[in-house]
Amino acid sequence: MSTETEAGKFCVACGAKLVLTAIVCPSCGSPVSGSGSDTKLITASYLFAAFIPIIGFVFAVILGVKGKIGHAVACGLVSLIAIPFWSGFLQGMSGGY
Ligand SMILES: [Zn+2]
Which of 57, 59, 60, 81 is nearest to 69 (CA)? Predict the structure, then answer.
């Protein structure tokens, strides 16, 4: 599991550059693990991925941009699974068989 990309994040308190795996800021000691808005974003991403896969894909890209690669990949996978599921469901609804 390598998250050693150059694109890091920054401390919201002092602006120091942080590694992606940082839990507290090495400069000022502020906690940096997942702000509340990010938690909501991640939750929304999984919900959209499961129920509206196209939007879920957009959220997955946003998570990737925000450096949450693990969640981005997971949301992308959920979307990929959900697309054939919903298309099969809709075909069944329209009396495919
Ligand atoms: Zn700081």
Answer: 60
pLDDT in tens, 36-65: 567 888 999 999 999 999 999 999 999 999
Averaged pLDDT for residues 80-89: 92
What's the gap in Å between 31 CA and the centre of ligand 1? 8
Average confidence (pLDDT) over 61-89: 93
Distance in Å, CA 67 to ligand 1 centroid: 18
Helical (H) or strand (E) element with 10: strand 9-10
Phi and psi at residue 22, in whole multiples of 5°? -65, 135
CA of 37 to the centre of ligand 1 (A): 19
Q: How far is the CA of 9 from the centre of ligand 1 (A)?
A: 11
More confidently predicted of 1 and 21: 21
Ligand 1 centre from 42 Cα, in Å?
A: 23
